[in-house]
Amino acid sequence: MNGNIALEVRDLHTHFFLRRGVVKAVDGVSFTLHRGEVLGLVGESGCGKSVTALSLMRLLPNEAARTVQGQILLEGEDLLTKSKRQMRQIRGRKISMILQDPQTSLNPVFTIGNQLSEVIDTKGAGRGKSVMQQAIEVLRKVKLSAPEQRVHQYPHELSGGMKQRVVGAIAMHRGPGVLITDEPTTALDVTIQLQYLNLLKELQQDTDMAILFITHDFGVVARMCDRVAVMYAGRIVETGPVRDVFNNPSHPYTQALIASVPKMQRSAARLHTIEGQPPVLSDLPAGCRFEARCPYAEARCRAAYPDSFTVGAGHAASCWRLEPA
Amino acid sequence: MQRYIVKRLFQGLLLLVIVSTIVFAVGRLTGNPVDLLLPEEASEEERQAMIEALGLDGPILEQFVVFITGAVQGDLGVSIRYRQPAVDVFFSRLPNTLMLMPGVMLLAIVMAIPLGVLSALRRGRLTDRISGTIAVLGIATPNFWLGILLIYLFSVQLGWLPSSRMGDWSHFVLPTVTLGTFLVAGFMRLIRSSMLDILDSEFVKLARIKGLSEMKVVWKHCLRNALIPVLTLWGVFMGALVTGTIVTETVYAWPGVGRLTYEAVIFRDYPLLQAVVIMDAVLILVINLVVDILYAYVDPRIRFT
């Protein structure tokens, strides 16, 4: 067991058992998250990023969704074997999450202080201080202005950026080893986005917290992440250090994704798009899932799902074209 | 908060003026009330004497001024049957009706909240289906029918409970159940559907991410939000409750304002009916004001607006 690993996910399968069939939203996802590392999980809408995140938290939205296979090793212990009670002890303390939309993440009928107080420990580290004093300190850490007043305010009295700071404070207060952020800045203004990302990065560097950073925005990946994993139709197709993946995208899907990021210099050019649609997750092809949209598709791509081939140090992609001759 | 209450009070006052105007108009403009008040064989002199006694011989506008002036001073005319000021008659009966309310409210809260929450948590399962069926029956069964059924079962067949009039606690059981059934059923379904919405919301997800217990997630984070739509519709339910008392008190011969309303209609006691309708309006307005204040307490988003 490598002491440097914060979270290891092995062959995770989360399926939705619906009347019209089984939707394989996450279908064999594996990755490793090291301590103090920010791993970007990138892909288009509906590729299974959020379901992956919720599977890790064991907070799948309804009974139709089940993690049917795999291991989620947090500090070497498999979360999938934990009871509900044990998971409650783990959530918020060892693994935590920031949700996408700050407008709806906070309960509208309780004050900020009240909602923060639920993660504040009054017996251990915080002994001798009132809950509100501690709440104010927590808000100060996420650089929220006038925290003394904020604790008495309700969510609707705060802006989106301020709310997301509160959510961040709640998620990170108990010092989880792993933080999952599911598009934390998508709902924010561009200027606020940058501030928030800088704050996250700063708080992350102060601790050895590992972040699984889910996004569809390659610009954010470049700014935030050490490594990146590209997800397509329920599987990770390419993973590697951010710089390597950007400079040498090896999977045709990654190449297409990077090509479709608009560039400032070529403002007049037409935006690059990927032709076609991703496969229906309830009716997946036997071979490569990108085959139908891939400009390099061959017969063997249809026949079998490609193995993962190494293209550089810590850089691998699942594409038959990379098979060593 | 004070501004909010003052604003609501003014709105209530305005509504009351409108209600009084309608009551007045319906009374005067849909025919001569004297025709209703006097037996058909009454002589012309008797009619004329009654018209003068009720002040119905002046122009309509003057009558309205007299009516409003009286109404503002708490004078809504004299009951023909009781030969007392109609308002006094109303207030002498009001306590009997109000005595039923704590039981009805308690029943609604004690039954509707846990059942509504439970059906939402066990959506689609047996508990949910059974409670759903009972709720539909509760909403669909008219009060008079339910009242008669309960009397037949518990008073006539089993002989456990008295069938009518006021008395010790046992007299309260059947009217309370009769009045409460609709409220319980309505609230339960409302709480169930708003709980279902809220269980799916992001803040509930965050509450779980915090590692809170299911008890805290459901009873703290969900319930308070689930009660907001219940409060919103509280006014509607109160209207149903007031009309419900008319039928229920009649079925159980309960000497409250509901039964009084019924009597006023049956005995063509026009001033009394007028007074009862206006006082019922006042009652509903007061209840709604209290609910609005409560609403502002439960949902901070509507404070100061």
What features would you highlight for this structure?
heterodimer, A: 325 residues, alpha/beta, Rossmann fold, 2 domains, eight-stranded mixed β-sheet, four-stranded antiparallel β-sheet, 12 helices, 12 strands, globular, B: 305 residues, mainly alpha, MetI-like fold, 14 helices
CATH level 4 superfamily of the largest domain in chain B: MetI-like
SS strand fraction of chain A: 15-25%
How many angstroms does the end-to-end distance of chain B come to?
9 Å
Query: Which descriptor suits the 3D outline of chain B?
Result: globular
Describe this structure in words.
The complex is a heterodimer of chains A (325) and B (305). In chain A, strand 9 and strand 10 (235-241) form a beta hairpin. In chain A, helix 7 (160-172) runs parallel beside helix 8. Chain A is built from 12 helices and 12 strands. Chain A has helices at 49-57, 84-90, 102-105, 112-117, 131-141, 147-150, 160-172, 190-206, 218-224, 242-247, 252-259, 299-303; strands at residues 5-18, 21-34, 38-42, 65-74, 77-78, 95-98, 178-182, 210-215, 227-232, 235-241, 309-312, 315-317. An 8-stranded mixed β-sheet of chain A has the order 6-7-8-3-9-10-12-11, with helices on both faces. In chain A, strands 2-1-4-5 form a 4-stranded antiparallel β-sheet, with helices on one face. Chain A has 2 domains: 5-94 and 179-322, 3-Layer(aba) Sandwich (Rossmann fold), CATH 3.40.50; 107-175. Chain A has 325 residues and is an alpha/beta fold. The model of chain B has no long low-confidence stretch (mean pLDDT 85). Chain B has helices at residues 2-29, 33-37, 44-53, 60-72, 86-98, 101-121, 126-140, 143-157, 170-199, 202-209, 214-232, 234-251, 257-266, 270-298. With 305 residues, chain B is mostly helical. Helix content of chain B is 77%, strand content 0%. Chain B folds into 2 domains: 2-88, no CATH class; 101-253, MetI-like fold (Orthogonal Bundle). At the A-B interface, helix 2 and helix 7 of A face helix 10 and helix 11 of B.
